[in-house]
Specification:
The protein contains four helices and no strands. By secondary structure, it is mainly α. The protein has a single domain, classed as YppE-like (Four Helix Bundle (Hemerythrin (Met), subunit A), Up-down Bundle), CATH 1.20.120. Helix 1 packs antiparallel against helix 2 and helix 2 runs antiparallel to helix 3.
Length: 108
C-alpha cells in the first residue's frame, strides 16, 4: 500500500479538527455548499482506503473498522457547535492513533 492513503487520512483528520475549531469560534458552514462536499470527500478517501488495503492484511483488525466509523462520524459532527469538545477530541485522538498504528503495521 502506498503512503498516499495514509497521508490522505491524516490530512482528513487535520481538516476535521480545523472545521471543528472554526465552528467553535463562530464560523457557520452551509450544509449543501460546505458540509455535504466535505463529507463526500472524506467518504471518497475512506472508500479508497478500503479498496487499497489487501483483504487478508489489516481489514480484520478493530482499528480498521474504528477508523472508518470514526472518520465518518467526525466528518459530520465537526460542523455542529453542540458537539462536546472532550468527546470530539477523544475520538479524534483515537482515530489518529489507529491510522498511525495501522500505517506502522502495514509498513512492517
Amino acid at each position: 500500500m502506498t503512503n498516499c492513503i495514509w497521508h490522505l487520512l491524516l490530512t482528513d483528520i487535520v481538516a476535521i479538527e480545523k472545521h471543528y475549531t472554526m465552528v467553535r469560534s463562530g464560523t457557520t458552514f452551509d450544509f449543501y455548499d460546505d458540509v455535504v462536499p466535505f463529507v463526500q470527500t472524506i467518504d471518497a478517501h475512506l472508500l479508497h482506503f478500503q479498496n487499497t488495503v489487501p483483504p487478508d492484511s489489516i481489514q480484520t483488525s478493530p482499528q480498521y473498522t474504528r477508523i472508518i466509523n470514526l472518520l465518518k462520524t467526525l466528518s459530520v459532527v465537526c460542523h455542529d457547535v453542540r458537539t462536546s469538545k472532550k468527546h470530539f477530541y477523544d475520538q479524534l485522538k483515537t482515530v489518529k492513533h489507529d491510522v498511525l498504528f495501522l500505517q506502522q503495521q502495514v509498513g512492517k
